[in-house]
Amino acid sequence: MSAGATEFSVRPALASDATALLQLMRELAAFEGYLAEFSVTAKDLLERGLDTEQPQFRAYVAAAPTGALLGYAVLVEIAFTYDLRPDWRLKELYVSATARQLGIGKALMETVIADARRHGCGRLKWDVLPDNSNAKQFYRQFGGEPVRDWEAWVLPLTP
């Protein structure tokens, strides 16, 4: 794909992407304010998804022709719900600050949506920080909308 003068391709993340993917994940953690709690390592990415027969997550990356990663999306699957179709939950979608406004986020999201449809998913879900109006505007272009009939709840389980 090409966005202006920036060429990139979107593809499933590979084991060889672990270190660069981790760096982008750390950038997102800093942006969203949880870097101090961020504890994922490259080894975790390999063992839990990028280099295993039974991955716990799916990851897609946008890569420049040089191989440099410009952005990523990470998803987890909820195997089935009331309609016996899986849901995919988009846990993270991030484009590096230096690569924004080039169509990379859109290309990642279009890839995720297309793969979710191919996989037979009933829904694609995600969370947005309440004050992130740019993200809300971004997701609306794909037909995304806030869930109004449910509240998100959490029970922190500390070791």
In short:
The chain is of the alpha+beta class. The protein contains four helices and seven strands; from the N terminus they run E-E-E-H-H-E-E-E-H-E-H.
Keywords:
globular, Aminopeptidase, alpha+beta, five-stranded mixed beta sheet, 159 residues, 7 strands
Overall description:
- With 159 residues, the chain is α+β, with helices and mostly antiparallel strands.
- The protein has one domain: Aminopeptidase.
- The chain is built from four helices and seven strands.
- The protein is globular and about 45 Å long.
- 24% of the residues are buried.
CATH topology: Aminopeptidase
CATH class: Alpha Beta
Task: Give, in spatial order, the strands making up the sheet with the most strands.
Answer: 3-4-5-6-7
Q: Tally the helices.
A: 4
- Unreliable stretches (pLDDT < 50, length at least 5) are none
Structural class: alpha+beta
Radius of gyration: 16 Å
Domain module tally: 1
Write the H/E string, N to C: EEEHHEEEHEH
**How much helical structure, as a percent, in the residues?**
25-40%
**What is the terminal-to-terminal distance?**
45 Å
CATH superfamily: Gcn5-related N-acetyltransferase (GNAT)
Number of strand segments = 7
Coarse morphology? globular
Annotated CATH architecture = 3-Layer(aba) Sandwich
Strand content: 15-25%
Mean pLDDT: 93
